[in-house]
Amino acid sequence: MGTFRTYPAAIKIKDDINSELHHLLLSPKYQIDFSIVSPLYHYSILQHEIAIMDWKTAAQKKCDFVNALIPSEWRLPSPVPPASEQRDVTGVYIQQFLSEREIEITETDAVGIVKHTTGGEWTATEVTQAFCHRAALAHQMVNCLHEIFFEAAIAEAQKLDNYYKAHGKPLGPLHGLPVSLKDQFHVKGVETTMGYVGWIGTFEGQKGTGKEKVFESEMVRELRELGAILFCKTSVPHTLMAGETVNNIIGYTWNPKNRNLACGGSSGGEGALISLKGSPVGFGTDIGGSIRIPAAFNGLYGIRPSSGRLPYEGMANSMDGQNTILSVVGPIGTSVGALKLVIKGILSREPWLHDPLVAEIPWRDEQEQAVLELVKQGGGGQLAFGIMRGDENVTPQPPVKRALDVVVKTVEKLGHKVIEWKPPSHAKALEIAAIPNLDLRRRNRRFYNAPFPLSKHTNTNKTPVHAAFALSGEPMASQISSVYGERKEEYTASRIAATNVAKRQFQKEYMEYWNSTSSLTGTGRPVDAIIAPLAPFPAARPDIAKFGKGENKLKRIMPGLSVWVNLLDYAAATLPVTTVDKAVDKVDEGYVPLNGQDEKVHLSYDPEVYDGAHVAVQIVGRRFQEEKVLALTEILGDALGKHVV
Amino acid sequence: MGTFRTYPAAIKIKDDINSELHHLLLSPKYQIDFSIVSPLYHYSILQHEIAIMDWKTAAQKKCDFVNALIPSEWRLPSPVPPASEQRDVTGVYIQQFLSEREIEITETDAVGIVKHTTGGEWTATEVTQAFCHRAALAHQMVNCLHEIFFEAAIAEAQKLDNYYKAHGKPLGPLHGLPVSLKDQFHVKGVETTMGYVGWIGTFEGQKGTGKEKVFESEMVRELRELGAILFCKTSVPHTLMAGETVNNIIGYTWNPKNRNLACGGSSGGEGALISLKGSPVGFGTDIGGSIRIPAAFNGLYGIRPSSGRLPYEGMANSMDGQNTILSVVGPIGTSVGALKLVIKGILSREPWLHDPLVAEIPWRDEQEQAVLELVKQGGGGQLAFGIMRGDENVTPQPPVKRALDVVVKTVEKLGHKVIEWKPPSHAKALEIAAIPNLDLRRRNRRFYNAPFPLSKHTNTNKTPVHAAFALSGEPMASQISSVYGERKEEYTASRIAATNVAKRQFQKEYMEYWNSTSSLTGTGRPVDAIIAPLAPFPAARPDIAKFGKGENKLKRIMPGLSVWVNLLDYAAATLPVTTVDKAVDKVDEGYVPLNGQDEKVHLSYDPEVYDGAHVAVQIVGRRFQEEKVLALTEILGDALGKHVV
To answer: Which distant-in-sequence residues (6+ apart) come within 8 Å of B5 by Cβ?
Structure first.
């Protein structure tokens, strides 16, 4: 029939394999169930199997090639024990494979590192080697890297050291700082697969462009100019549209703090790697929570800046050209200082002269200082926060509830004000963003107006998501097929226009609600930021699907608590608060379900499974208020004793 | 059949009426030819005629109602003579109907006015009365107003005077400054028709919204807070998508300096009114040249800011929700100082807290100062400009060529540098924006991805442009039907996404070309701005269609020289340079056509017809460089002796 390579198989991992999921998913060879989602995919089982051999071979080859780049002296003496024996591979577990000096270096945050490298106390080379070693260990433990270029990194570090010797000063403010990158950044010498088997050996799926392994994204150029060392690219879920990290090349990326759980997504590899301190700071992207979710699930600081603050130019993406809600790029790190350091660095390069979507807003020290000055006045009551404990659709699980309480108490202890946040309907926000939350599901709604390829009017080869799968014939992971598996007609221009208008009207309504809180705060100003959950659970359970069936199945990740921030284009940072304690975070016996989905969230909470997992909240500020959001997050983090996590 | 009110007639004004166009178009009763553009509009001639009676009656009633708001003592004693007898109605012609004091006030620019009103020398009332009087005269001469609210304005002015007496200080920086508004702004007490007969008595075409004559646009609220006086709303072409100003309510707005010519569009009423000094400063909008074209055609300063600099919130619009190229709001005035004054004023109100699309970029005095400091150093060579004399598609007419030469010579006389501007293909820019320039016409291309209503999949009632016509059954003006008259399928999400990507890639290419000029300027920086034409002619000829036939017919206005600025989202101001002098600006005998359209532009130039018309160029700066563009424009305007025009 010859149509196979046009329409990919939409398959799902068998629901009954969850008990063995850990081992099965660690390789691309996991078992798959060929129940085809729609009869509209016309091809035979035989064609399947031939094609699957193709993509499996290609994926395994790529995976083996990358893993072979780990020097033999950095290989683990034996495989990591299963999660049932070794739930947490952070801290003392990973330290056993490192020298004292390597531990000292890699457990210093980015601010501390550049203090030493720009001051000449530490060489870029020893810093880079230490992080390469730790990243190699991290990858062997949780499967978090797509590309490894340790050799090139160490060579760059040596050049920087030579520069320092020759000039007696650092190259730039990030001199010798290792920075990891989500596998959407193009870096010379390596590929960008973004988890697609079909992108192996290509530039964004195309061969012979002349850009393969040569072209670099704008931000990569700027990071190099600042003196940063690039050394690896981290794992993502194929399509980027999931809160878990899974693809057919590397398999599944686990949460290092609790290997029963997902590391989050789509910047999941970043979260896992930085949590293991295999990198001090890295960059992810966020269109619905993809920076904040992995930052939170891994107990890290991360910020989703407003769109147009940092340069996305020259990066690979899903659904490029969809501009109702833009994906944004932002950092994840072990301290708020790390995030400020790299954002300030990038903005000092005037990215608005090289990225048409970046607004000319330099780093504004004065906005950070304004917050610090207020607080310095002492006596309390200088700041005001809104507290949002959930929304109309979902009640967070007990550990998340407790984390919110901890933050509220911390704010109050500092003497500041907290008011209940009673905003315009968040259910409406999800409806506008067309999130496939079951209780809001509408016929013909699309996740972010996704341009679908399967309309008869459309050239299927030109539409990114399905075309990317079609290149190799690889199957979609079940987390993705719940979003993309179904054949639908494309949105029309009128429909998109109506969505854009609805979005703007909702933003207006929300900003006026925010303005109106000035009468409640006692500070004379509206609230300075909102304290809110960013997911209903501390981390996603890979086996969460078993808590529902068929149409009513719980989605792997509910973006309902994160995506309103994207719709509103607000600046939002994660604040790591605590870890799950099974002795404290018991199942809520008095729970009353809001709806069927909410009940499934409730049912999926198991203190035994979650014990030890990170719990974080988000601090949400207004559009382009990155400086203020980071200042507030740092104040709260310091008060929680988490200056560096 | 009952479908008439769903599908409007797309009609065109007879081509053979151009000799009498002036008089015919002055009323909505002009003759029309019922050649229906497409057989897909299903209705009978009979239904036409019934509906036409309806819209004609409604239009005439509205027109009469507004005109009746002109006090009898301000009515012209007799109609203005035809253009053949009185080509120019500005200056001494209009002055004959005004007192010395009224002339003194109305011929002071906005900066001078607020100096007097905030200093207490002039009352807001006498200033307002003087401008209301002059605006009433202007309207009777060139048909430039949609809404008149002189009484409310004078009452507001009296309140301001009382405030001043009570507090001994002005209400705000625009205290007592009359500001005119294009008929897209909602102002309490009056309607917004935007030229649609079907919008009479409604709020944007809807009845019973509770917003009728009550709701105010965000910027209107801010202007009031600043102390500005709103007194009239100015004419637009229906749909806003034309470089001429014509609709079925007020008819045609003529160019006051040369009544053979168009006043431009779509902010045409603003251009005509301010040119007659019936307003010191006003606000228009620009999606393809709609601020710059009327500013230029009327010898005024105007600026198209980058999108997101000034608040568009709560304004009526065409094709709302189309967000590939956004319409922006910006001022037109008689001095650069006027533009700075109102922009600085609006930004001081922090519009980003009330409009979700406004970026948090306050007025940056330091950017203006940086330019002034450079120039102060003296000795020449501090600034560098690119000169663009046309593009691949069109050669400007002799007066525009001369104006460009005048500006280049002025720059060189000041000692600054001018380099030839050799940018990426402007033809490509037009192709991306899908401008229906004949030489670039592609099947199924859309002007700004316009959401068309006629697809069978679409609810026709919800699509703005045709639905607005359908409300009354009124016909489209020929200038509009060339863009909207044809039935086409809607763009799909994939197509829009591809356009958005192409736009961004072009922006990137262009900005890197701009960056590259740093090696040519001798200043160490890339060029500070581009000097460019914004239309191939000093003003459009309403009879320009006669210079071509059928498919090859010249469009009323060629947006090819203005729309690249919108695609690139650059800040661009108009610089009035000279007037056409038939003794100097002779037909270019050595002309060689670039293409058929270009030849028609050439053929349409007639020194006799154009004599006396304003000629302007545009000064184009980078995105969000409004302060710099205005500073440069002021330096050039001063050097040309046009501090106030």
So the answer is: B51, B470, B471, B473
